[in-house]
Please model this.
Amino acid sequence: ELDRRDQRGERFWFVRTWDCSTERTMRVLALLGLLPSAQGFYLPGVAPRTFRYGDKVELKVNKLTSVHTQLPYDYYTVKFCEPHGGVQQASENLGEFLTGDRIENSPYQLYMEQDQFCNILCAQNLKSHDVAAFKMIIQEEYHHNWIIDNLPAASILDSEQYITTTYAGGFPVGFMEGGKTFMFNHVNIIVEYHPLEDGSRVVGFYVEPFSVKHKFVNGQTWDGADIRTAPPLTSCDKSGPMVYEGIMEKQEVKNGQVLFTYDVMWRASKVKWASRWDIYLSMDNAVPDKVHWFSIINSMLIVLFLSVMIIMIMIRNLRRDITRYNRVLTEEEKNEEREESGWKLVHGDVFRAPTPAPMMFAVFIGTGLQLLCMAVITIGFAAVGFLSPANRGSLVIAVLVLYVMMGAVAGYSSARLYKTFKGKEWQKCTMYTAFLFPGICFLVFVGFNIILSFYHSTAAIPMLSLVALVALWFGISVPLIFLGAFFGYKQEPMKYPTKQLNVIPKHIPEQPWYLGTTFTVLVGGILPFGACFVEFFFILSSMWMNQYYYVFGFTALVFVILIVTCAEITVVLCYFQLCSEDYHWWWRSFLTSGSTAMYVFIYSMIYFWRLEPVLWVTYLLYFGYMFMLSISIFLVTGTVGFLSCLWFTKKIYGSIKVD
Model:
C-alpha cells in the first residue's frame, strides 16, 4: 500500500515540483552566498518540520462541520475534554476566518515514534443540556476536523460489514443505531512518518473512532480529577490498540459520566513530505482523472461544433456578403436601383449607444472585466501550485486581494465605454462601478453574518475581520476604480469603422420568433453551461460537501473552453440578428452568453438536495451564496459575449465600403 501511494504521489506534480525546484534554487543561491539558509524560499505555513524521537507532536482541533446544516461550530461548544492550561486559539489569517476555521489546542499528548495504548484523556459528567447538545450534533451528522503538523485527519470507520477510509470532511462525532444515539469516545490515532537522517517528518494522519462503554477493574469508580489516580480499565488493553471486535458495549449519549480515551500508533512510511498531500487531493483515487478528461473532451466537442459553425459563417456567408457589398454596380443595376438587404443596411445604426440604460451597461462591463481578470489570475496561480491546500485560506485571500487590485481595470473600462456612449456623468458611472456589485455582496454577507451570529457559528466572522474587508473595499478597491476611471475618461472614445448617419433610428422589421430576444438568450447559455457542468459538479462538492478540489489544471482548461464557447455562440447569434436588420446587439450579446449563469443557478438548485438540509438557514445560506456566484458568472460571461461581438462587428463593418 505504501509503494502504491508513493507512485500515486507523482500525479500531482505541482506539489513536488515546487519543493524540488525550491531546493535546487536554494543550493545555487547558497553557493553564490546570497542566502544563508535554504529554508528562506518555503511558502509561509508549508515549510517542513522535522521531529526527533520523543519530541511532542501537537494535535490541534478545528471547527465541527456538517454538510446538512452548513453551520460550523467551535470544537468546544459541546463538552469535549479541554486542555489543562485552557483553550488557546491559533493565529489565523483572514481567509481562515472567512471559511469559518477556528484552530485550537487539544489535551491529546503525542510523542514522536512512541506508541501509547488505552490512555485516559478525561472524564466528563454529562447533564441534560450536554446530552441534548451531543444528540443534536450527532443527529445532524457533525464531524471532527483534527490537524497534526498542518495535515488534516483522514477517517477510518469500522462496521460489521466493512472498513471505510475517507480523506476529506473529518470523522463523525457519533452515530445513531436502533433509535439510540451513541458517541465516539475512543480514537485510534495513527500517524505516518517518513524517517530522515536527522529525524522524521509527519506524512500521514488517520483517526479511527470507536464507541466504548468503559468500565474499571472490579467495578471501581473515579472522580475524574487526576488521571494518575484513575483505576485500570477492563474495556481496553494497555498492550495493544482498540479493535472493533473487542468492544463489549457502546457508549450511549445519556446523563452520567463518559470516559474519553485514545491510542497512538506510529508507522514508518515511504511517502516523502512533498507528496504527503497527494492522497488527500486525489482522495485515494476516488475520482479518477478520466472523469475530468471526459469533461474536457465533452467541452472540446462543443467548441469544435461551434468552431465549425463559425468557420462556415466566416468563410461562406461573410465572404459572399462582403464581396456582394463591395462589388461595383453596373449601369444596368444602378438604373434598376436594387435595394440591398442584410447586415450592411444597419451600418448607420449598428454602433448606436445601447438602449436602455447605457450607463448601467458600462458599469456591468467594467465589473465583469474586473471579475474576469481576477478569475484568470487566480486560476493561473492555483494551476501552477502557488495556492497550496496546506496554506489554509490562501485561495480566499487571493480572490479578495486580486478583486480589489483589479478595481483599476473596472474603473478604466467602464469610464471609457461610457464616454464612447457620449455620456457626461462619468462620476456617477464610477460610483455605480465602485459600489453597486460589491455593495450588494457586502450587504448579503453582513446579513448572513448577523444570522450566523445568532447561531453562534464560527462562520460568523469577528468584527476585526469585517473591518479588514471594509478597509480592502474603501481603502484599495474604491480609490483604484476612481483612478482607473480618471484615466479612462481622459482617453479618446473608441473608434468605429462606420459613422451614425441617421438622427432618427432606423426602423427594425418584424423579427421571426427564433430571433427574438427571449429565445436567443435562453439558447445562448445552454452550450457554454454544457461545456463546464461536469467540472462545476466537483467545484460545488468542494464548496458544500467539504471535499478537496485542487485539479486547477483541469479548471484552467475548462475555463478557457467556457470563454471560447461564450464568444463563439454569441458571435453566431449576433450575425443572425444583424442579418435580420436588428441592430440592438449590445444588451443582446451581453444577455446571450450571460444566460449561462441562469443554468448554473438551476443546476445548483438540483445539486442542493444532495446536502439533505435540516435547517431553514441552510436554504438561506446556500441559495444566497449561489445567487451571488451566479451573478458573478453572469457578469463575466456577459462581458465575454459583448467583447467578442464588439470585435466581430468592428471587423465585418470595417471590411465593407459604405457610401
The longest helix spans residues 616-654.
